[in-house]
Amino acid sequence: MANLLVTGGAGFIGGNFVHYWADKHPGDTVIVLDCLTYAGNESTIAGVEQAELVVGDIRDTELVEKMLRERDIGTLVHFAAESHVDRSISGPDAFIETNILGTNSLLKAARKVWLDEGSGKPHRFHHISTDEVYGSLGPDDPAFAEGNQYQPNSPYSASKASSDHLVRAYHHTFGLEVTTSNCSNNYGPYQYPEKLIPLFLLNALHGRALPIYGDGMNVRDWLHVEDHCRGIEACLHKGRPGECYNIGGGAELPNMAVIDHICASVDKAMEEIDGLADRYPDAPAAKGRPTDSLKTFVTDRAGHDRRYAIDEAKARAELGYAPSHTFEDGMAQTLRWYLENEDWWRPLAATDG
């Protein structure tokens, strides 16, 4: 049995990790620290018996110290972050506060309890980061490897790059046992409907425009969130302290291909699922029109990176990691989940306007 502290565990990736860990390690206790901002939702982890939610801020160092000490926690998995690039462009300050100062607060607490107080307790601080810290690739450039130079291009990716450097520094300076994983674009259940896949899916169901930045040919590697959770588990069990591991999904696709897949999937679902057209009468597919009629091109986002791609050779070799979901089966599962869990996403879609 073990006690884990999961920061941001009521968010999208963190919440999926809580579900995954509870299923795979039923004897462990998972303490979730989340301040429940717009992207944190208590209902995401409702029903997970091993999970205990503490509503609090990762910048509250004393609170984190108390939790680590009193709950005898030896593993901290750090998801908590501001993560939406558009929001970082309109309001960078929150990203500096959470992603940089918040990570530093956690590191200080972990150092004090696990190292300075001299308990000698085995420990691991795992930090979840992003492939966006590496910058943008040209069409023929090799995929991002862990040794690539950091070249962040948005306030979001710059704040994550800064937090990555802090985690590394706490290992090399103080001896904190850390690992970092840099993931590609996640998708799957419980994703807040500001991100591309849930946004376009819900817009398609409600007959709203599908706003496509630029020419729609920006390329991303798509990672099903369950595969990401498996990669994090492998980092915790097999990762070498001080090392970084790239976790990808093996599905490098232009945004337009993803959007076309969503449109075709909604069209097919309307034909095959009884009563779906009655539930979503504003969807073009409910009226016999193709969903792709909603596609609308908009001005490209400032500093929009053209291409990301993940080289996961190190994770395969050292951790035994490989994605188990193809993009097609992962998207089919994701569509089913959103159609079957309207009670989860509808309040969020309403508040997001």
UniProtKB/TrEMBL annotation:
Alphabetized GO MF terms: dTDP-glucose 4,6-dehydratase activity
EC number(s) given by UniProt: 4.2.1.46
Cofactor(s) needed for function: NAD(+)
Keyword Cytoplasm (UniProt): no
EC supergroup of this enzyme: lyase
Similarity remark: Belongs to the NAD(P)-dependent epimerase/dehydratase family. dTDP-glucose dehydratase subfamily.
Protein name: dTDP-glucose 4,6-dehydratase
Species assigned in the record: Aurantiacibacter gilvus
Gene, per the UniProt record: rfbB
